[in-house]
Amino acid sequence: MNMQDNELDDLFRSKLGGLEMEPAAQVWENIQAQLGGQPKKSWAPVWSIAATVLVLLTAGTWFLLDKPAKNKPNQVVQLKPAPKAIEPVKAMDPMDVEQVDIAVKTLPSVKNNITTTNHIASVKQSKGNKVMASVKLQKVKPATIPEPIVQPQIPVLASVHIKPVMQPIVPDMNLNAPQISTEPAIVKPVNALAAASITNETEKKVKKRGIHSLGGLINAVIAKVDKREDKLIEFTETDEDQSSVTGINLGLVKIKKDK
Amino acid sequence: MMFLKHKYSTEDLIVKCRAADRKAQELLYKQFASKMLAVCMRYATDKMEAEDMLQNGFIRVFQKINDYRGDGSFEGWMRRIMVHTSIEYYRKHHKMIHVDIEESGYEQSVNGLAACSLEAKDLLAIIQQLPTGYRMVFNLYAVEGYSHREIAEMAGITEGASKSQLSRARTMLKQKIEQLEGKKYEYAG
User: Which class does domain B101-184 fall in?
Assistant: First the structure.
């Protein structure tokens, strides 16, 4: 071997020995994958929080947008979604609807005074739970409604040209029935008894719960805000680590898992 | 990332890498990847192949980092792993060209090279054009500084074959340089 060979070797060694070249980003990703994969980050908690926030925001927006409609001054019956604060006025809702229905049937002339069908639809929607509950009550015990309850209505309803007619009321028909503008005060005294029974029933439905878990805590907080029977969102309240959703009520969309 | 890079010394990173700390592994990789890729480039025919070698090399570095005892530079240790990995890459992929023993009559005297104006990238291109076996032996002998016996052991060839390959590699390299340099290439005598 002669010097020239060394010269050649030196040339390559000196020029290439200290060379640097940037590898593609993919190389590290491959190395990382081969070393045992990227440490798995569990996104489950993040997603569950994000989902809850999304649901709350959606529902909150829905409530805010929906509220002004409920509080229109020309609303016949003030409907508030507060089961604990049931007043005779509210308890009257179903009866009111029914009686109006009767009136409409029996007195065609009154139909001219019908406000709108929309009105009733809004009552039904916004007041869904209570109307349903009340209708249910009537379905179960139609005979228990004492005649005297209806009787006092005669003079009252007469003022709006309604004659009391005792006939079976089909709940479904109420949903389609138009409504007449009536003063809440007029009907107010009529249904004291029915109101009382509804109140009792509602009270039974109020569940006494302790807070044992995150689900329970969320339920308690939501219960403060959402007074409906089917809450915006309900969780299981077991002491298990994982609380799962048992019910969602977005007004139009309701999902309820039986416990 | 850059901030962290300055925060840890290579020694710190090595200690953390021994505990398979993923972040430290990444920082160590980022610190040495470009140098090590250049090593692999000399053994590969193109960058893609070199990156494959680099990948295998770093995996081995992390797997064997407990074997590094701190005697000698860490970079040198890593470089040796890269070289071994590159050789293994060819052996694995059956790219090792057979050794042409008949041609092992000693090299024609290679004439002295004048100051070479070729850039590193030109030299790299030249070296990558060599047949695989020639390239490997030349790299191991001329750039890395291994003896023929070591090369024979590493590459799984005979010492004679190593010498033969080196000789043919040099001849080819000089021809390539001559072509590129043109008139700049001069005969020493």
Answer: mainly alpha
